[in-house]
Amino acid sequence: MNGAGLRRLGLGLLPWIGAILLWYAVRWSGFVNVSLIPAPHQVAAKSFELLTKEGLLIDIFASTRRVFLGVALGILVAVPAGFLLGWYRPARTFADPMINFFRALPPIALIPLVIVYFGVDETAKLVILFYASFFSGVIVMYEGVSQITPLYIRVAQTLGANQAEIFRKVIIPLTVPHILTALRVALGVAWATLVASELIAAQRGLGAMIQNASTYFLLDVIYVGIICIGLIALIMDLILRKITARLLAWQDRAIA
Amino acid sequence: MIGPSGCGKTTMMNMLAGFQKPTTGKVLFDGRPVAGPGPERGVIFQEYGVFPWLTVKQNIAFGLTLNANHVPTAERDAICDHYLGLMGLSDFANSYPKHLSGGMRQRLAIARAYAVKPQFLLMDEPFGALDAQTRSNMQNLLLKVLETEGKTVMLITHSVEEAIYLASRIVVVTARPARIKEIIDVPFAYPRDESIQERPEFAELRSHIRQLVMDEYRAQQAQMRPVSFSE
Q1: Which bin fits B117, alpha (ψ -120 to 50), beta or left (φ > 0)?
Q2: Which of B53, B79, B92, B120 to probe the A interface (max A CBs under 10 A)?
Q3: Were both Cys, which of A17, A161, A165, A168 would link to A156 (CB 3.0–4.6 Å)?
Q4: What is the DSSP string of A90-108?
């Protein structure tokens, strides 16, 4: 690693170190009851315990799998739907109010209905995550696609491109950035919705772990769950950013 | 083609390119009506329109990979190399357009248009967005390209000097509704260089065309009603 790389790593770590120090400071300041704030090292010890004895990895896997499936299904539908809405103005006029109506509903408010219609098993949780990913993804897609300039299509036409070639060689490359952005936004929203989705009688999962812990007032477990969710979301976002930077090397803004 | 802004020059270009249909009358190319855009009529836009997701070389090759003008890979490479050299872009063959200046982007757009061997090129204020120095370089480059490629170019411009320096024939267009006011044959032989701009005939022609354009510009201004906030 070169000097600049080390510098960047240092700058990236600095706020984390700061956060941990602040955490200790709040605990030791005396303003808050110490029993309400487990110390960072206690949380670290707890996460090791959960990892080795309680199968934390199973919870992580269960949650990651749910988020992954929910986002994959949501984006799979959001990409063509968002594309059509962005491309055909009449479709947008027609569907825009509807989409904004549903988008504004917090998934947690839908949980009772989801339970009624989909039961309490895995499907119900996926429906919630699908809902959250689809509506956040479809908006990004159609906002992006509607801003594609007709100039490139005109240029391709004057060079002799037919409809299929315009779609394959011009519209798809111009759509890829929006698909990637939609994916990132949907992933973020899905992780944010995870705990809500696991309110539905989940046996395993980070959200379920947090809720069970809250029943027994196990604050350290709650901290572990929260940190895990944040970390996995961060890692997924980093990976997606790397992929984006590679696929979109042609773009003006540097994303990585 | 030169005329006051807003008189319909771009509309005319859009009809020749095939993006718009004339409300009356016909656009004929080699006796056949123009039905839509096509590779036999190349178009250079003021905003360049180079594809940002393709490298310089891929941009030039774009038209050659289409069904309409498909060529074997070896020939495609040869054509790309030829235009990379002619446009001075060889060192940037594998760069993305984000690394190019405005002048280079326009050179790339011209190279890409020529690569599909159009019979005729339309240029809508191609150098309008460039600074004076780059613009003058581009004019010289275009003269060189015209000499080596020998294709008819219809160029829309606001600059009287540019029109005289580049064109063999200048069409002056009137204010709305646009009509042809005068067609002027430019007396300078090709190849041309900047020295012709010092010639007395150049100055004479320039003041004549300027007068025509200014008259039309004033006519155009007179047509526009002042905006009133009370309405």
Answers
A1: left
A2: B53
A3: A161
A4: HHHHHHHHHHHHHHHS-HH
The low-confidence residues of chain A, meaning pLDDT below 50, are 254-256
Total CB pairs under 8 A between chain A and B:
73
Measured between CA atoms, the residue of chain B closest to residue A151 is: B49
Q: Is the pLDDT of residue B134 over 80?
A: yes
Q: Nearest CA to CA, how far is A247 from chain B (Å)?
A: 10
The whole-angstrom distance between B78's CA and the closest CA on chain A is 18
pTM: 0.82
- Contact between B114 and B149 under an 8 Å Cβ cutoff? The reply is yes
Give the closest residue to A197 by CA, choosing from A137, A104, A130, A99. Answer: A130
In 3D space, the residue among B77, B148, B133, B99 whose CA is nearest the CA of residue A249 turns out to be B99
3-state secondary structure string, B114-177?
Answer: HHCCCCEEEEECCCCCCCHHHHHHHHHHHHHHHHHHCCEEEEEECCHHHHHHHCCEEEEECCCC
For residue B119, give the nearest of B147, B143, B140, B150 by alpha carbon: B150
Q: If we measure between CA atoms, which residue out of A190, A171, A161, A162 comes closest to residue A80?
A: A171
Amino acid (one-letter) located at B119? Q
Decide if A160 contacts B70 (C-beta within 8 A): no
Query: Does pLDDT of B227 surpass 80?
Result: no
Question: What does the pLDDT look like over B35-84, one tens digit per residue?
Answer: 999 999 999 998 889 999 999 999 999 999 999 988 999 999 999 999 99
| Class of CATH domain A38-247 | mainly alpha
Q: What is the pLDDT of residues A120-159, one digit of tens each?
A: 888 988 999 999 999 999 999 988 888 888 999 999 999 9
Locate the domains of chain A by residue range. 1-37, 38-247
Residues of A in contact with B37 (CB under 8 A): 154, 157-158
Tokens of A171: 């519209």
Contacts of A251 in chain B (CB under 8 A): 52, 98
- Separation in Å, CA A252 to CA A180, A245, A249, B85, B98: 16, 11, 8, 26, 6
- Average pLDDT of chain A? 89
**Closest by CA position to B126, among listed B159, B173, B175:** B159
* Whole-number pLDDT of residue B231: 39
